[in-house]
Amino acid sequence: MGKIEKLQENINNSKYIVALTGAGISTAAGIADFRGEKGIYTRGVYDPYKTFNLDYFKKDPSFFFKFAKEYVDVYKHTKPTNAHYFLSALEKKGNLKAIITQNIDRLHQLAGSKNVIELHGSFERGYCLRCGRTYDFKWMMENLGKNGELKCICGGIVKPDIVFFGEPVKEMDKAEEYARKADLFLVIGSSLSVQPAGLLPYITSGKVVIINKGEVEFPEDKVYLRIDDDIEKTVESLKW
């Protein structure tokens, strides 16, 4: 039995599937990953410390706002990939119980997925670091486009509700609860190099299947099935 057939059989027979997704699931949509061959960090486009460190952001948010402006310019033309729709279809069938994502792009929700745990937050909303006033994605998109920055009416800096270095991830307890219950744990588009998300496959009681092109930081002897291939190609080979 080939790997695709083996994956298909396990998807069909599983009652409690949980998926962990990383940046690799969205690269086919045109959103660059961080550590891949053409990733944001790999190409040296942005200094990780100056761009995504909370303390540095409070001192000088210009580095992050430069990234954010480029991000929303790309996002305006971005649509979910087949892999996003694949997971949405599994949820509608009832055997996928949750998606745990490291991504901030909300493409899972755009594809129709309902139970999405966003460990690193998203651009769905932002809040002023001075007065706490909240702003929605539309406002942030418009202001980044016009002004290249996000300033509250009080003059404070508006920070999108994404997790920076120096901040705890969101809903990790909930993610762990789903991981423990899974009978099939799908890792899609993640190298598992970022913690604490990378710990989730260690605590699941289910079979770990990794679909990711490139190296993955997880012991081979703990992987039930490893597909080192293009995610879109893999998903298109499945029946869903």
Give your account of this protein's structure.
The model has no long low-confidence stretch (mean pLDDT 93). The radius of gyration is 18 Å and the shape is elongated. The chain has helices at 3-13, 48-52, 54-59, 62-75, 82-93, 107-110, 137-147, 172-181, 200-203, 231-236; strands at 17-21, 96-101, 116-118, 121-128, 134-136, 158-162, 184-188, 207-211, 225-227. The protein has a six-stranded parallel beta sheet with strand order 3-2-1-7-8-9, sandwiched between helices. The protein starts with a helix and ends with a helix. The protein has 240 residues and is an alpha/beta fold.
Blueprint (SSEs and pairs):
Layout: H1 3-13, E1 17-21, H2 48-52, H3 54-59, H4 62-75, H5 82-93, E2 96-101, H6 107-110, E3 116-118, E4 121-128, E5 134-136, H7 137-147, E6 158-162, H8 172-181, E7 184-188, H9 200-203, E8 207-211, E9 225-227, H10 231-236
Parallel strand pairs: 1-2, 1-7, 2-3, 7-8, 8-9
Antiparallel strand pairs: 4-5, 4-6
